[in-house]
Amino acid sequence: MRRDGFPTILLVALAIVGFSAVVWLNARPDQPASIIVIPTMFVPTEDPNSWQTVLSVGFGSNSTPLPTVAIPTASFVPPTLLSSSDTNLTPIAPLQLTTIAQTLPNGVVTPTPLAGTLVSQATGIPVTEQVVTRPPSQWRPPPLIPPISRDPYGRDHFVFARPVDSNATNAALLSYTFGSDGPQQESPWRVHHGIDMPNPIGQTVRAAGVGTIIWAGPGFQDSPSYGNVVQIQHDFGYNGEPLYTLYAHLSAVLVTQGQRINLGDPIGLVGNTGRVSGPHVHFEVRVGENRYRDTYNPLLWMVPYVGHGVIAGRVIGPTGQGLQDQTVTVMDYNTGLVVQSTTTYIYLDNGSDVNGDPQWKENFVLGDIPVGRYTVITNIDGQRVNRRVDVSEGMTTFVDLTLTEPTPTASPTDA
Ligand SMILES: [Zn+2]
Fold first, then answer.
1. What is the pLDDT of residues 337-382, one digit of tens each?
2. What is the reported pTM?
3. Ligand 1 center–CA 339 separation, angstroms
4. Distance (Å) of CA 403 to CA 29, 101, 329
5. 235: CA distance to ligand 1 center in Å?
6. 308-401 CATH choice from 3.10.20.90, 3.90.1150.10, 2.60.40.10, 1.10.10.350
């Protein structure tokens, strides 16, 4: 035991010295030292509401004073925007499509009698135009700015503004579209030569383009149906032909004949004069001559809304003839929801028919379709016909609905 005493003491002493050296080295501050400064400007205070004081210290005495903001007690409710998929939309029911097909003129056409049974409560005059009022508060995006022709072949001619302000109803009434005879098969109305925009009496009606007032008042072309009318002959034409717009059923006329007028100028107020069942503006586009028979679908002349386009087309029967009063439905390609429907133009061959567009030669138009992909559907000879279309902003998408196009490709398995 004793013989081992000294080395043991020596080892213990060395261990103590080594441990102390390690402790001392770790306790030394690094050279050079990185100095960590504890901020002193953001001194927490005991008053939890004194954030103004803390911030004023932080921004300095020359900083802009912070505004005092009233914090609302009610939670914010974002506005609900109208979309194509949340109003009056129902899944498509193919059986609802009409199977009635009439042929266009060139043959015998039975004239449709005028409706005379309805009488306007406001005017006591028999009604030929019925209006289902839509709330004018219904939100709509602003229209594009005319003139627009974005079609790569220059076929579009959206040269007119909408005649009613964006915050009013400046969409065409869908129950009485251009070229149709109204919703009731039994008591058809006069074939519509314009589009109707139902609005409260007094809503401002505006010039669709620059031009000269050529009519201002009642008695337009010896017809009592129109009520108070303003008509403009525009400074610009189309393919060398003059262009006219007409605004009917006004409660007040704000211009005089011969007056120069600019796009957007107030020209009258919405009313219910003439043969109507409710206040609206009847908007017509005439090309060439200023006659009832020279009217064309305003939806192909009036700018669409921002983010919207137009679908135009033809429903054509097996022998190549256009089919009249045929229901055409537009369905959202992705959701399968019906977006809009219309009917093909009716021709009575009585010398005062409506016209297909000089460019498009269509027999139906669906206006203000949101940009997107759709299926256009009709029924020809009892067969459902679908075509897929893509709608672009400010453009017309044209589609022919026939039984034979596109030509079906026989598969190899077909024997
Ligand atoms: Zn009308």
1. 999 999 999 999 999 999 999 999 999 999 999 999 999 999 999 9
2. 0.66
3. 22
4. 92, 14, 16
5. 25
6. 2.60.40.10
